[in-house]
Request: fold
Amino acid sequence: MSPASDPNQLGPESAGLDSVARELEAFADETRLVPSAELTDRIIAAVAAEPVPTPPVTFLHAVGALALVDAWRAWRLNLRLALGAGPATGRLRLQALAVVVVAALLVGVGGTTVAVGAAQLVQGIVTPSVTDPDATPVPSGLEVSPSPSTPPITSPDLSPSPDPSVGPEESDIPGESEEPGASSEPGASEDSSSGSSKTATPRPSRTARPTETPEPEGTEVPGETSTPRPNSTPKPSDTPHPTSTSGDSGLGGPGGSGSES
Amino acid sequence: MDDLQFVTAITSGDRDAFRSLVEREQTPVFRTCYRVLGRITDAEDVTQETFVIAYRSIGTYRGEGTLGAWLGRIATRQALRRLGQRKDALSIDTPGLPLGTAGGMDPLGQAIAAERATRVRTAVAALGEPYRETVALRFFAELSLAEIAEQTGRPLGTVKTHLHRGLARLRETMGREVAA
Reply:
């Protein structure tokens, strides 16, 4: 039968393996069985439920079995069929073309998704420095939101407007730390007085009315009138200050009034 | 009808062509499965699985080698997979050879053949890959070295090396069993 024990097949160094090969061949000779007569019908019955193994079906079976090599072969078979090779019906060619296109699209989309994901992953390692500036504008936007009455003017001019209003006077008086808060809010307070609807900001201004005739003093420096307002949440602290001294001490009280006076 | 004509007819939906292929190839496929598994019922089950798999994927057969060799490799892989799923089969319930099947042997000859079958099957099953597959394709599926190279996609020299090493390991294993 088979020339397995032929030394020429495995080379001269296989001479010592002849006994093993002969034993394997003897085993093969002793097991020359014949299957039962029903086996053919069993196989045909099992296959009867299967769809005709056209190239599209073969491709789907290979994909379902995760047999990538077979799937690749079946895809190329579909490609040849879609391009007109071999005898096939028009319907079968359309199916093959659909398989080719869908598979190519899926692979393309999947590859692009993986590439974009990898690129974003790489950028995500670099971006932490970028996230900080993203965080800072959030509070600034919250402060600007109450002043939508001014937005057409202020929103483009936000950066320059605080500079002229606060820059020369307040930067000296209350100190540097409160400048940003003062620069934005005074605009809102003025707008609320001139405008109609600002609920939060007018309330502290009313509390200041009886106490503060010095508000005119505040008008000297509009930024200072505004600076207490964020600080005005402790209202009792505002009222004692004007009683003792004028608005300046009350406004910048804890921070710079004593030192300045 | 040659192999490619079989393939063309089957992929066109010709069930009779597939039946003809089954009738032509079922015996070698069944023998391959039986040599690996050692049980007729299991061998028939795996033979059926082999033909179902072949039917599904026959479109990928490109005429490299014969259809018989292509089926032989599918059968060997399925049988080895089944063997791995029932690891206890060879330890307790190994039937060796069915009585009366080893043509005209007397009871003593049948007993010797059954013992050899058990020893060979156990030793081959204990081989690691790729030696087990190569030895099984060569001696159980009875493929030539060139057919094994075609079906596995390995160079012929590599197949020879695998077979040589597989036989060497079998000699060690079977020698230990005989000595024991």
In short: DSSP finds 18 helices and no strands in chain A. Residues 7-50 of chain A form one domain. The mean pLDDT of chain A is 62. The two ends of chain A are 117 Å apart (CA to CA).
